[in-house]
What we know:
By secondary structure, the protein is of the alpha+beta class. The chain has two domains: 44-158, Immunoglobulin-like (Sandwich), CATH 2.60.40; 159-200. The chain has three helices and nine strands, in the order E-H-E-E-E-E-E-E-E-E-H-H. The strands form three sheets. The chain has a four-stranded antiparallel sheet with strand order 6-5-8-9. A three-stranded antiparallel sheet has the order 3-4-7. The protein has a two-stranded antiparallel ribbon with strand order 1-2. The protein is elongated and about 105 Å long.
Amino acid sequence: MVFQQKESEAESSASSKGTSVQNHYAYAVALSLKETDDRVAPNLNLLTVKPAQNNARNVINVGIQNDQSILLSKVKVDAKIYAKGGKSPVYSSLTNEMQMAPNSNSPYPVALKGTAMKPGNYTLKLAVTGTAYDKPKTWHFTRDVKIKSTEAKTLNQSDVDLKANTNNNNWIYILIGALLFLVIILLIVVLIRQNKKSKS
């Protein structure tokens, strides 16, 4: 809902004469409408876990659904992705102070942070905490996901961070190669001079 301050008579007469610039301010206020006073029990579901890209960067999208007609505030998402059977997470993401609209679902991206996506079997462990009626509630999910080699290859080829890292590595290799070449030339020159001195 949008509210705007009522225009005074002085302002309206001045604006009609066209002698000055008038500023008008409006405020948007969010309203939550309820059809009943009964409290809706909040509930979240884990829909999908799949490799994807966000802003041309590799991510693993975790589809979280709020299937109830209630707004969840102060949402905290803690996602950890392990190689199947592994003890340390390969990828992780932690986000606080989010909100989830009623009857909505959205992908939560776990960023790979410039590392190449590797094919294989992984396990997602997800903890989501949300607050409704000033009471926090936590949901825990576990889901296995398989990243195919074709998916990983396609995504890695179009990841802008990986391209930047590859270009930087190429320059490093070129610089190292040039330095080695100069060192070899210097060694050859020194050996030739020593041979000439020994002959003379």
